[in-house]
Amino acid sequence: MKPFIGWVASLGVGLVVGFGLAGARAADKPYEGMTLNLASQNDQFAAVLAAIAPEFEAKTGAKVNVDILSYPELLTKITADYVGHTKGYELATVDIVWSGQFAEAGYTVDLSDWIKRDAAEIKVDDIYPSLMASLGGYKGKQVAFPFAGYANVLAYRKDLYEAAGLKPPTTMEAFVADALKLTDKSKKVYGFVANGQKGPAVAQDWMQYNRQFGGSILDKDGKPALNSSANIASVVAYKKLFDEAAPPGAADYDWGGREESFRQGLVANMQTWSIGAADYDNPKVSKIAGKAGIMLTPSAKGQPQEYGIGGWSLGINKDIDPKKQEAAWAFIKWVTSPAVHKELNMRGAGSYLRKSEMTDPELLAKYPFLPVIATSFEHGDGDFRPRIPQYPELQDLIGSAINAVLVGEADPKTAMDAAQAKAETLFK
Amino acid sequence: MSAVSRDGAAGAHDADALSIGWSYAAKRQMFLAALAAPALVYVLAIAVGPMVQGFLYSFDSYNLIRPASRHFVGLDNYLDLWRDPTARRALINTFAFTFGAVTLEFVLGLGIALLLWRDDWFNRIALGLLLIPATVTPLVVGLVFKALLSPEYGMLGYPLAELGLTSPRGLLADPQRALAALVAIDAWEWTPLMALILLAGLKSLRTDILEAAAVDGANASQRLRLIILPLLMPAAFLALILRMMDAFRVFDIIFVTTGGGPGDATDTLMIYGVKQGLEFFNIGAASAVSTVIVACILVVAAAFIGVLKPARNRNA
Question: B49 to chain A nearest CA, in Å?
């Protein structure tokens, strides 16, 4: 009898210990065996995100597959996923301009309540309010959580400015004058460059330029005003810059072509997203290492000093089950936490979010231009590209019209009148 | 007479079938139908079904982003293809591109096929090398030519711009020449395929007819015009139809080189349709574009058949 009692006791102790350990393991890794698929834009952060994701699995048990996609592919795939309720992606990177569309369609989980609940853990106060409002925020909803903030900055060539005896521009008027002065076509040096390629490329660069001169593509009532006199004047001036101060191929440049022209030493000035700044001093890819400066974008005289901001947020698919939503939210909190986000940027993600990152000694040593980004975020404007549901079509109309003007296929007024007529039909 | 006998026999079999079940012929038909059924179901489900559904969507205003606002608009989506200047330009460009590319490829392909007709080692090697462009993905071809034609660093674009032969912005940013440049790129890639099909046609010609013509005193030009070209019609028909169908729905090369620009200079129906469907999610408008593309290909193919079939029959 005694051996039997001993055996039962041992079994009991074993079971208790076993269940206890299993319970502890479950508590340690609450999402063991779960897989989260993340559709990511193919920006600088994507490869870093994919590399760091296994650390989340080690911590929580949830495996995160990062599917890196081009911009149109990303939008098409996630929209098809949301519309078809196929639950292919639990998480997706959401562009700043998609917020309105996503909020209207209700594709992603509204994170507002969760952010309030976990505010202390997230350290919400450490995140720039401009980024929180524009990256995923729309009319009181938070359809995605900010992840990668970009600031529009002015990249310029210190050596060319010094040689010409000029100081970098602090107003748009000076920017235009300098661009013309610094152009020497015989030496293949140009004072200006911007995206000229038809579509989103030229539309986005012109909208930024237009806003700095005080133009706006929507009127006070939120209706399109593409052919306002200020906008047409801005297109005329933009064409002049392309004709007289930009590399000849600029009318066909997208972001890659524009950045390359700067890195190859062709141009003296370029307004650009801060994400590219880290490469200018890298001699492996840049001929201007040590010669590039980064500063705040100028505004026209009399205009408020606001800076264009853009970037990406992380959204959770509304169709997935609550347990997966919880895991996806845990991932978002983890990847945007101060330590992990700093690590992403130490590895070259170029995607800033937190105030603490801008004063971090290690990050500052590596990226001395961070104070410029900090100021841009503090006075950031995420709406120079209106984050409204009609944005994709509006952007396409602008992109076609401006490109037609730049290549001489249409005059500014005709092009903007035609675009306005079409834009009005989108708002009926 | 034999047909009557067969029918009579079949009638007898049918009568048997009524009394003892399925006849052998009926069973055979059923068996063959069963073998074909999976393929038929597959085609219906994968191709015909979506096409019919797309056709039905084309009469609706239907945006995936705003599915609740879907409503019937009749022929509006089709009429918009002509009323909207961008869509109209895309339609015209598509025909211009198809006509330009297929004509150029046919003329060059015929010339190459005639040059390579003689079967010797040099021609065999040359033919093998010629086929290389056709093996490259059109997307890659587009990217390569975009780099080559860059006015700043392109091996072709830079000297052309420096010599003043193109605008300083380069060929692809010149509204007057961009479509022609794309036709040339397409011809670079697909002329070898055209040449290959025509060469196969040439090799299948009966040499005794050509030898007889030569003996009768026909010179080279007469042999080409009066014998070779008429006899080549079946191969030409195949080559033209294949390339026409492909050129009409060109997408990759244009998407990566110009994106339809500058302005609307190189917009085609496919570029316009993809933008409507996959960028703006206007399923109704995109479906109308798809239907028009299919209809245009059917009409042009029917026209080819109408023109070339009599000649083919004459040669048969």
Answer: 18
The token duo for A199 is 């579509």
The structure's pTM equals 0.79
> Which of A193, A198, A202 would best serve as a mutation to test chain B binding (most B beta carbons within 10 A)?
A198
Among B80, B150, B169, pick the best mutation site for testing chain A contact (most A Cβ within 10 A). Answer: B169
Share of chain B above pLDDT 90, in %: 55
**pLDDT by residue (tens digit) across B287-306?**
999 999 999 989 988 887 78
pLDDT over threshold 60, residue B17: no
Cβ-defined contact of A104 to B173 (cutoff 8 Å): no
Residue A393 has its nearest CB partner, among B173, B263, B280, at B280
Whether ipTM > 0.90 holds is no
Chain B residues close to A252, C-beta within 8 Å = 169-170, 172-173, 258, 261-262
- Cα–Cα dist A363/A360, whole Å: 5
Tell me chain A's radius of gyration from C-alpha atoms: 25
B281 with A79: Cβ contact below 8 A: yes
Residue B60 DSSP one-character state: E
Contacts with A243 from chain B: Cβ below 8 Å: none
pLDDT 10s digits, B215-267 = 888 888 888 888 899 889 888 988 998 899 999 989 999 999 998 989 889 99
pLDDT of residue A17 exceeding 70, the answer is no
Q: How far is A30 from chain B (nearest CA, A)?
A: 35
pLDDT band at A324 (very low <50, low <70, confident <90, very high): very high
Pairwise CA distance, residues A385 & A310, whole Å: 9
Q: Which residues in chain B have their CB less than 8 angstroms from residue A403's CB?
A: 261-263
